[in-house]
Amino acid sequence: MLSALPSPVPFEPHAESLLQLPLVRRMLSDPLVRLVPRAIDQRWHYERIAPVSLTGFNPFHRSVFYASNSALSRWLDAPYGSARDYNEGDHLVREVLFAVHDYLHCWSAAAIAGLAPRVRFDTGPILRDNLEDFVFCHLLTEVAATVGLDYWYLSTFNLAERIPIGTTLVNLTVNYHERYVSEYRRFCPRWDAQRPEFFGDLARFYCSGVFEGFDVRDVRRSPRLLKWLSHELTYGARQREYTRLWLSFLAAEEIPPGPRGLSAPVSFEEPWKQRLIHELGRVMFAKIKEDSDSGLVLRNRNEPPESPRARRPDFRFVNANVVPFTPGAAPESLRYYVLQRVSAMAFDRLSRDVRQAIARGLRREEHEEVLRLIERAERVPPVGGEPRDLFVLN
């Protein structure tokens, strides 16, 4: 487990090291957030047998989780050297950037706890009366991760030139780059993402589903806008749905879906929410643009909300390395249980024929057959310290 780099730094990183990126250095040296391995083999995802990455996240734990067998885990043993030999298929660069994304989730969750202590966002419990407040705050952490890494950072330079290891990545979660700002301004002349107030613009969009400044006619007239905004429009609705599902699972009491549905708009007009949007945007802008925490003192300890032990496991939101399977699981829960179980097997210890059979079984959703195929397979060695509650839905 690596939680922080030694201080002082013994030597300068190689020109091809990902530590040339200040946000990567901050992630590895910040005592507030730990990097925690999980006993999974990322080869299943690299080889496209597991269609999604199962590393998972839980910002309440102030931890960035990564696969114990992965490009990232190998790179962490020698982060000061060239990253080129670890980046086959761009797996390393993608994993490091997703780790930074999750780091900003965790940091902003702690910042929210400091800026709006009455919400008790880092402590819980989650109840009917405060669920929507938690949904709002969690969406702000998603805004922080997306705006901070993609809009305010990666979109402002050429990653392939900054880290010359042949990476093909430009952004991580959005198709936006400042090099195309003249095209954006053809339709919204005052467009400017490089200002603290843009945080609030995206926060209101994630809450409402309305992206100010552009309309459908603009998107039809610009493939560049279409490529960027079509993803954001879909992503915003999905974030509201997934956030309500997950926080309802973590809640201390059963909370049925609201009458308007899981993807319904989230209220953001209350004065405390407007104030939090403004203050969090300001400190995030300083963190990304100036590498400054704005004097904000964040608590090192918190009491993360936890799902009730008596609740039936939903393996979209619990860790199959920790929680045993119980019969009668809903189809989506069963699917993620099987995917998690497969990812916890040592990839190289199974023959090519068995791996191909597992891939067929996953594509056909033949869950019992896949479980039979891995029943006697060798598992990835346990690492300890894995959380029970883990968001793996994607």
The gross shape turns out to be globular
Summing up helix and strand content along with how strands pair, one would put the structural category as mainly alpha
In DSSP terms (H or I, runs of 4 or more residues), the helix count works out at: 14
Distance between the termini: 25 Å
Spatial order of strands in the largest sheet: 1-2
Mean pLDDT level: 93
The total of beta strands comes to 2
Q: In terms of per-residue confidence, which ranges show pLDDT below 50 for 5 or more consecutive residues?
A: none
From the alpha carbons, calculate the radius of gyration and give it in angstroms.
21 Å
The fraction of residues in strands falls at under 5%
Give the fraction of residues assigned to helices: 40-55%
What pattern of helices and strands is seen along the backbone? HEHEHHHHHHHHHHHH
User: How can the largest sheet be summarized?
Assistant: 2 strands, parallel
Can you walk through the features of this model?
With 394 residues, the protein is mainly α. Helices cover 44% and strands 4% of the residues. It is built from 14 helices and two strands, in the order αβαβαααααααααααα. It has helices at residues 22-29, 43-46, 71-75, 91-115, 131-151, 159-162, 181-187, 197-208, 216-221, 223-250, 271-290, 331-343, 352-363, 367-373; strands at residues 34-41, 63-69. It has a two-stranded parallel ribbon with strand order 1-2. Helix 4 packs across helix 11 (271-290). The longest helix is centred in the middle third of the chain and has 28 residues, at 223-250.
